[in-house]
Write a structure and sequence with these properties.
The protein is of the alpha/beta class and 324 residues long. The chain is built from twelve helices and ten strands.
Length: 324
């Protein structure tokens, strides 16, 4: 077996280009205070391309005064389509600013987030949920210049449930159900959405939703629908689109028409929601705008600027189809 390839260094680039390592560093880091002849710059850039030179993160951090790493803390829950799309958009938006997103999946056996932050020398740490003040301080002690968000995440989650229930109430449903997931990791978010649905019911003069736990299997979905039907529930808010489609399946198994006997509203607007039978009414998020805004807020704080206000339309909105 041959020896592993030797990593290309700035000294190799300098040797091929016929310049000093300092010149290589200044050219590749785009230091505007230094002016080099175009021919010199081209020699350095050509040599770097020829050798496939990639600066070390530590060297880039030393030149820029910070690393280009942004650490994303992902909660310990199944990664659905909504989270995946947000991560994709955030990755692309940060890349446009020369920053690299690294994700850290939380869990019982995972390393503490501040340890990961210190190891990666991350300049910024962000999350799908908010950080407590204590965690934000720990991340800053670990070297993070920016920690976002340090806010109460419950209101937007409650707004999701409020939109679902308000739509069903406006359609004349007098008693609603709520499909709670059985996965423990989902429950904190689900209960926030259930709280929002209860607020909408109270505003409409209705009883709180009848919450029933169910799994993503046919038998569990049919039992949940049977439980709601026995209570005269005619409209169901589901935790997300997967659970909403399980409710559709359970309704068919019980011989109930959707939306005539049992209307259903999901969350996330996953790609297959439009192909459900019937097409699924759901609550959607503009994940492109959300990822772009989070990236702009991180960059602004790294540069010492005031972060931009959230653009209109980023929050949850109803996508009406035939299921409700």
């Amino acid at each position: 077996m041959g020896q592993p390839a030797k990593r290309v260094t700035s000294a190799d680039v300098a040797r091929v280009a016929g310049v000093s390592r300092t010149t290589v560093s200044l050219v590749l880091n785009g230091k505007s205070a230094w002016s080099f002849p175009e021919e010199t710059r081209n020699r350095v850039l050509d040599a770097a391309r020829q050798l496939d030179y990639r600066p070390r993160a530590s060297a880039r951090a030393l030149a820029a005064g910070r690393s280009d790493i942004v650490l994303l803390a992902v909660p310990d829950l199944p990664i659905g389509a909504g989270i995946s799309r947000f991560v994709e958009q955030l990755t692309a938006a940060l890349a446009g600013h020369g920053l690299t997103l690294v994700t850290h999946l939380a869990g019982a056996d995972a390393r503490p987030l501040p340890d990961v932050c210190a190891t990666l020398e991350a300049s910024a740490v962000t999350a799908l949920e908010s950080f407590s003040g204590e965690m934000a301080e720990a991340l800053q002690r670990a070297g993070a210049q920016v920690v976002l968000p340090v806010l109460d995440p419950a209101p937007p989650m409650r707004e999701v449930g409020r939109i679902q229930a308000a739509h069903l109430a406006a359609r004349g449903h007098q008693l609603l159900g709520y499909a709670l997931p059985t996965e423990p990791a989902h429950l904190p978010m689900a209960r926030q959405r259930l709280d929002g649905a209860a607020l909408a019911c109270a505003a409409a003069g209705l009883e709180p939703p009848v919450a029933v736990e169910m799994g993503l299997d046919a038998a569990s979905a049919e039992r949940a629908v049977a439980s709601w039907a026995a209570r005269s529930v005619t409209g169901v808010c589901a935790f997300n689109d997967e659970y909403a489609m399980a409710v559709l399946s359970g309704s068919r198994a019980r011989g109930l028409a959707v939306p005539g006997d049992m209307a259903v509203v999901g969350v996330d607007d996953i790609p297959v929601a439009q192909f459900a039978a019937p097409p699924l009414t759901t609550v959607a998020f503009d994940l492109h705008e959300a990822g772009q805004h989070r990236a702009e807020a991180i960059v602004a704080e790294l540069e010492g600027r005031e972060p931009p206000p959230p653009p209109a339309g980023v929050g949850p909105r109803l996508v009406q189809r035939e299921s409700a």
